[in-house]
Amino acid sequence: MRDQTGLAPLLEVRGLQMHFPITEGVVMTRKIGEVKAVDGVDFAIARGETLGLVGESGCGKTTTGRCILRLEKPTQGQIIYDGKDISRLSQKELVALRRRMQVIFQDPYSSLNPRMKVGDIIAEPIRVHGLERDARRRRDKVRELLSVCGLDPKFVDRYPHEMSGGQRQRVGIARALAMDPEFIVCDEAVSALDVSIQAQVVNLLEDLRERFHLTYLFIAHDLSVVRHLCQRVAVMYLGRIVEMAESDELFDNPMHPYTQALLSAVPVPDPRVEASRQFRPAKGEVPSPINPPSGCVFHPRCPMAVENCKKARPELREMRPGHWVACSEVH
Amino acid sequence: MPPLLEVRGLQTEFRTGAGVVRAVDGISYTVDAGETVAIVGESGSGKSVEALSIMRLIPNPPGRIVAGEVLFDGRDLRKLPEEEMREVRGRDIGMVFQEPMTSLNPVLTIGRQITETLEQHQGANREAAEKRAVELLEMVGIADPRRRLRQYPHQLSGGMRQRVMIAVALACNPKLIIADEPTTALDVTIQAQILELMKSLTQRLGVAQIIITHNLGVVARYAHRVNVMYAGRIVEAGDAEAIYHDPHHPYTMALLKSVPRLDQPRRARLDPVEGSPPDLTKLDGGCSFRPRCRFAVEACGQSQPALETVGAGHVAACFRSAEVAKAREIAQESAA
Predict the structure, then answer these.
(1) What is the pLDDT of residue B159?
(2) What ipTM, to 2 d.p.?
(3) Which of A104, A209, B149, B335 is the most exposed place for a label (fewest CB within 10 A)?
């Protein structure tokens, strides 16, 4: 897969599968089943692009991100990062890679060490990786990172509990930038923030992407934020990508029945629009990934399902240029 | 006809290490029978404390309701003895909270939690209560209610648990339901199911609702009237249409502008409300939104603006509300 510029993508995921075993017994451990958290996912991200990965709890979006960061070892599939398959690398071989890939988590409360000062939190990765051995220059770099992230450099001497949620998230971003990474996984990075603060952090992420030529995988459940921050969006359901397209194309022309149900469920902050909107929430709930439905995993909840949907698993097909849909009933 | 609920000058304080925080600072509003009123605000704006104050569920210490009246159906709830207040909770006013896992008792079956309410408040016997519980679960869209009655909360999904909470809240035919972030913990398709269910049930049964939320989309979809809270006060209140299309408070306007909308094309930059919410221990005598407000003038630092009428049933607490509305009109014209 090539991007528009004809360059190879920074990241390519092929047939990614992450099945977690369910075991029974303590001494004689037996595998009695598996959770198919990610079940055959393919996508690519071009350099400088932001790809949104959306879906509801348990759809596998976070696990996909963790596999790419190699916090999990996928059970199958390839993760090609800058031309090299990293899916089978050992922990030792991964060290160099960790510098180039970083992550920003949802909850700045639990992802910052409460006993460390902000300056030390940001300096730690620089020190551990030996990027800057001189303590004074390390401190200068930390101050610079804070100001790049819109925080007063005086914050180096504060503790996380002395800061607001928005400020803590900026510290999390500064820490991710400390390694001069090229790729950042943002896992629900703005979900815990209040509306007025959320917009500030979204703008910061966009500024940083331009300034440092970053590439983002933006994992989120808030579809409105995703529409505005991401160039392309992939929708996941029960471990699979069901639709993928450019952001405006996906939100203006959703083709997969699941995407349609998902979008129709999001209320828009405008009573006039809401009064005239068609509203049909999907019936039922997401089935268990331990024993997912046969064929198309969405068929039990799908208003368009026909007999064949129970049998054949639909693959992603390109219905319009750049718009991929995994549904056999979309023509 | 008098309103079903009238809150007058409600004030709730908390003692903290950093000093006394007035989390709710003189709030007044009404809810008519059968109406859905939203209270919107961000974390720390006092919206949940306000709801808990109505129910007298503020833990004391550190919290204390210091002033105000809560007139419900002709009685001041603040003056009721605790015994009678217990009767009001769950019978006249039902509650739905954000996290159904923590508000349902984990060691009681679903059935017992519903029948307990019925036995407590309506003196129903076991058999009648169980029959009614089955009806209630059916009403909130739970399939196979007889089997579910014997299950425990952990055996249910988040959406199911919230349906059970709604069944408990509706069990004694209340006149009012207070729902505090009822769908915030749920996925968006489940959120939609739950909100539609609450809407149809409250309409059918003529129950009034107070929905407390930070989600401006949910408010636009479900509320008749809206109260916008900031730093413990209502800064603007009115019909949903007026709040969204003719805001007169700079906070309301800025908040609406900062939310990305699913129905609008991608834009590279959002318009955030700059700065952060105030520290409630360090409020001065002026308008608390002043440091973040682009309309602020000297007068805003000298006294706190009171709610003034700016339209039919529409009030805003801003000295510069006329300029705010004018600026919005100009911006809208230049956009068109």
Answers:
(1) 85
(2) 0.85
(3) B335
C-beta atoms of A166 and B241 within 8 A: no
Contact A198/B at CB under 8 A: yes
- Residue A109 identity (one-letter amino acid): Y
Using one digit for the tens of pLDDT, what is the confidence trace for A11-59?
Answer: 999 999 999 998 888 888 888 889 999 999 999 999 999 999 999 888 9
Pairwise CA distance, residues B187 & B189, whole Å: 6
Residues A242-271 pLDDT 10s: 999 999 999 999 999 999 999 999 999 999
Record: contact B260-A225, CB cut-off 8 A: yes
C-beta separation of A18 from A67 below 8 A: yes
Query: Cα torsion for B210, B213, B215, B220, to the nearest 10°?
Result: 10
Pick the residue from chain B with its C-alpha nearest to A231.
B266
Q: Do A286 and B187 touch (CB under 8 A)?
A: yes
A272 touches chain B (CB under 8 A): yes
Residue B327 phi/psi, 5-degree rounding, is -60, -40
Size of interface A-B (CB pairs under 8 A): 136
> Chain A contact for B189, CB < 8 A?
yes
Long-range contacts of B20-25 (CB under 8 A, 24+ apart): B20/B281, B21/B280, B21/B281, B22/B232, B22/B280, B22/B283, B23/B49, B23/B63, B23/B232, B23/B280, B24/B49, B24/B50, B24/B53, B24/B232, B25/B231, B25/B232, B25/B233
